[in-house]
Design a protein that fits this description.
The chain is an alpha+beta fold and about 425 residues long. The protein has a domain at about 285-430. Helix content is about 30%, strand content about 30%. It has ten helices and 21 strands. The chain has helices at about 65-80, 115-130, 210-220, 255-275, 300-310, 315-325, 360-365, 390-395, 395-400, 415-430, and strands at about 5-15, 35, 40-45, 55-60, 85-90, 135-145, 150-155, 160-165, 175-180, 185-195, 205, 225-230, 235-240, 250, 280, 285-295, 335-345, 345-350, 355, 370-375, 385. The strands form five sheets. Strands 1, 3, 4, 5, 6, 9, 10, 12 and 15 form a nine-stranded mixed β-sheet that branches. Strands 8-7-13-14 form a four-stranded antiparallel β-sheet. It has a four-stranded mixed β-sheet with strand order 16-17-18-20, covered by helices on one side. The longest helix is centred in the N-terminal third of the chain and has 20 residues, at about 115-130. The radius of gyration is 21 Å and the shape is globular.
């Protein structure tokens, strides 16, 4: 019998109870009234022909803090024997999910530590269930070219407007992993696409946003299939549609528009799968992990921070960043950053921390031989990881987003080179 993969699957509902805080990425206090659609966590266990194991744990949450990821990895290693390089936690980054990151500005959404404890236990249990579900399987890769949004940075002189930019960078690369096996579910599909799941808008109900609609659409069309989403390097891209009156592109901001975007991507994925251009991946896996520091610019003085804290608008997250900075002084000059790289047959998968912008995902694929998936929002989410170009231009991603992430200063231009060197180091470790 030829060597083959063994794969396992498990999922669970992680929807919080009504009344808990939603991340206020839309600039106001938000509490969930109910669930528009359930939030889920899914685990896929992989085992190659030599017995090397890894687990992907994908969840409908905004992004984790490092301490939670480290705690889960510690417990998983003690219980299941998997090292930290063998477990990854990609987040969908839905803005209609619970606050779970200790590193965020308090104004972005308060954490309920008791929900977080339940979530931690659920995810660790899910790893065990996926390992118990291991069975013979094949894994194939399809690389599709898809788009449901546009770049959201429009240059206007020396300003960067938060508006659709048809000429801006948008990473259309959409890797699709298809697992086939005899157990239920008979097919497991992992889709990665680089666009923000903010298209539900400031809607005070739990929702997985467009990735949930994408998962449902594919599962409906392919009987016996479960679908996972892992967000690509699309921190500077949002879902758009054409305004029926003006004909111009506008950001999508309603549950209906979110569903439409998910269906649109799902149909593109299904067409790609139907073309029959998949490449089967040999049952050989290697895992690597590397870390380093990303340099920050020089931040404002304590005097400047104190002035903003005392006279700033108390309805602004900028004021609360200043007040939080005075209460919890942060003198870091660099931010710790980790990269995981997995090789599955001929495919290299980068699991990247933070909100990685399109420039960097594209650059990373260019420096890597063969098929490559660049997945962001995996494990810890310390902030926006921007290219030197975006940092020079300024705007939210390159200049002010650090205040939403409670960092003392924006990232420096040299952080692009540091990011790529950490990725190269992880790649070399395979």
């Amino acid at each position: 019998m030829p060597a083959q993969w063994r794969c396992g699957y498990a999922e669970t509902d992680i929807t919080p109870t009504p009344g808990e805080a939603l991340p206020s990425g839309f600039g106001r206090e938000r509490y969930a009234q109910s669930a528009l659609s359930p939030l889920i966590a899914q685990a896929v266990a992989l085992e190659d022909a030599r017995g090397c194991q890894s687990v992907i744990v994908a969840s409908d949450v905004l992004g984790y803090s490092r301490v939670l990821v480290d705690a889960m990895r510690t417990r998983i290693q003690g219980r299941y024997g998997l090292g930290p390089e063998a477990v990854t936690f990609p987040c969908s980054h839905t803005h209609c999910g619970p606050a779970v990151n200790f590193g965020l500005n308090f104004a972005v959404g308060g954490i309920n530590v008791w929900y977080l404890a339940r979530l931690e236990d659920a995810l660790i249990g899910l790893v065990g269930q996926a390992l118990e579900n291991l069975g013979p399987a094949t894994i194939s890769l399809t690389e599709a070219d898809c788009q449901i949004g546009l770049n959201r940075r429009l240059l206007d002189g020396d300003r960067v407007l938060h508006q659709p930019n048809p000429d801006g960078v948008y990473d259309r690369h959409t890797p699709i992993l298809r697992i086939r096996r005899r157990r239920t579910p008979s097919e497991i599909i992992l889709v990665s696409h680089a666009c923000h799941p903010t298209s539900t808008g400031a809607y005070d109900r739990w929702s997985p946003d467009w990735p949930g609609a994408m998962r449902r659409r594919i599962a409906t069309r392919l009987d016996g299939t479960r679908v996972l989403f892992a967000k690509g390097c699309g921190a500077d891209a949002n879902v758009v549609h054409r305004d029926p009156d003006s004909g111009s592109y506008v950001f999508s901001r309603s549950p209906g528009r979110a569903r439409a975007a998910g269906v649109k991507l799902a149909d593109q994925v299904l067409r790609a799968l139907q073309r029959g251009s998949a490449c089967e991946l040999a049952p050989e896996m290697s895992l690597s992990r590397a870390s380093g520091g990303l340099t920050l610019k020089r931040g404002p003085s304590r005097k400047q921070i104190r002035h903003l804290a005392l006279v700033g608008d108390n309805q602004s997250h900028l004021t609360w960043w200043a007040r939080q900075s005075l209460s919890f002084p942060d003198t870091r000059k660099t931010v710790d950053y980790e990269v995981q790289v997995w090789r599955l047959g001929g495919l290299k998968m980068f699991w990247l921390e933070g909100e990685v912008c399109a420039d960097l995902g594209i650059a990373l694929r260019k420096m890597t031989d063969g098929p490559t998936a660049t997945i962001a929002y995996a494990n810890a989410c310390p902030g926006y990881i921007s290219s030197a170009r975006l940092i020079r231009e300024g705007g939210y991603e390159g200049d002010t987003s650090h205040k939403a992430y409670f960092l003392p200063a924006p990232f420096a231009e040299k952080s692009e080179g540091e990011f790529l060197r950490i990725c190269a180091k992880a790649l070399k470790g395979l």
